[in-house]
Amino acid sequence: MQGLEDLYREIILDHYKNPRNSGTLESPPALKNEGYNPLCGDEVTIYVNWDGDKIADIKMAGQGCSISRSSASLMTISVKGKSLEEARGVIKTFKSLLSLADDHETVEIQTNEDLRALGELAALQGVVKFPVRIKCATLAWNTFSQILDEIDATI
Amino acid sequence: MGTLPEMPNLNELSFDPKVIKKDFPIFSQNRDKPLVFLDSGASSQRPTSVLDAMDDYYRTTHANVHRGVYALAEEATNRYEAARLKIGNFIGAPNPSKEIVFSKNSTESLNLIANSLGHGYLHAGDKVVLTKMEHHANHVPWIMLASYLGIKLEFIDHDEQGRLILDNLDQTLDGAKVVSLTLASNVLGTITPFSQIAQVAHSYGAIVVGDASQYVPHMPLNVKELGADLVAFTGHKMLGPTGVGVLWGNLKTLESMPPFLGGGDMIADVRLESYTPNELPYKFEAGTPPIAEVIGLGAAVDYLNNLGMQNIANHDRAIMKIALEKINDRFGDTIKIYGPKDYKERSGCISFSFENVHPHDISQILDLHGVCVRAGHHCAKPLMRELGVAATARASFHIYNDEDDVDALVEALAEAQRYFS
Fold this sequence. Notes:
Chain A: This is Zinc-dependent sulfurtransferase SufU. The complex is a heterodimer. By secondary structure, chain A is α+β, with helices and mostly antiparallel strands.
């Protein structure tokens, strides 16, 4: 069906049906943050084990639609093992992908090569055409971003 | 109130939804595919006569009401007050000129009630009884009151089909100062046994409040028979404009209540450090009211009266029956339908979910078929928690919906199910 393929790429459906890093981490020691989308009732909880240098482990729990769940799943893969700075870089890239980054933060994504470099995350680009669903895609990322702020405050 | 007589067949109705659609300009706009609007529970569409009434008022008669002595202002006031009488008569108000208060929507009407009763009538420790299926509009204002006044909230429970459980009603209502509940659930579609509950509540001396937002658009309401002291409903779900809501109250209750908002029009006199409230209903209408919207709502009431509310209720029942049958036939055990199984116990809407497809995704795929349904928590998060879901999809109906709309819904749902299987 025309239009649908842009939104529901195979990668998205795969991550929705088989979410990666789904579950919980014992908290504490894991850092934990809950996010809600009051419009649709979606809920996500992100757990992060920070070893002092990098994100040693990350898990996500909660309930949501295919976009919100797959976006959370893709996020955990993209940031696992990353340093604080690297993880913030991934967030910037993701926001640029959805045209949400502030001008000075926008990461150029113009060529197919840029897109390839994003890996599976690029599958979320189609969400741009469905503005109502952008909040679904960003829920886990905003929730995760607040954990990074928390880590930042302790360094 | 309660259940209405059986209405077996759409073909036996006194009006044809296809003809009705022609009165609603939104259905004749150019689109890729025809509009299948199944979200009237959130907000209905409105007929040309309502739009014309508001447009005509602005073009020919606008001036502020209750103020000017010039002819134009008097004409504006006359139109505004004529709409008040019309709306009051529509719900059988014994004293429509005094008992009908205009607000912004049901939410504001219910906030007015909670705030006003919270100033003098309710005190710390007093019991307010609600149900577990209230819209946030009839729940959060009472939670707010509980947080700053210390009132206690209790809830009438319901069974797995969303029917209120009345076994312990006496125990629950004993000592209640306020009992406030919906006449028809915006999620489950349940028509509640409101009058029965009101009778018991009154025997304990409680003030009884009805949220009729989902009831008034679909069924005849007569406040003389209902047994409520105060009733809230909104214009935009009953073919009227947004921005106008109604509070009806019996004279005794309204007279005992202090004003909610202060300002112009709600006063009889003001001195530097004191004021005297105006008479009913103006004491509850501070500031310039939504004049055009009230006149538009009056035109909506004319439209509904012209069709006849009993005929509209018959259509509601018929479409509910056929939609439940067709959805059950097609999807069987793969779909979960919330609320009463018997169509005669429900009104207006059907909430549902598929096991493996999130309501948001259902709604998205339906949208590509031109089918508009609501997906979300329907402003009833406590109920959603109890149902064990974050969200449901909801198809809701009004007079312009016919069997073709139901078929379009079923086909689009089948597509959504295929896509995510």
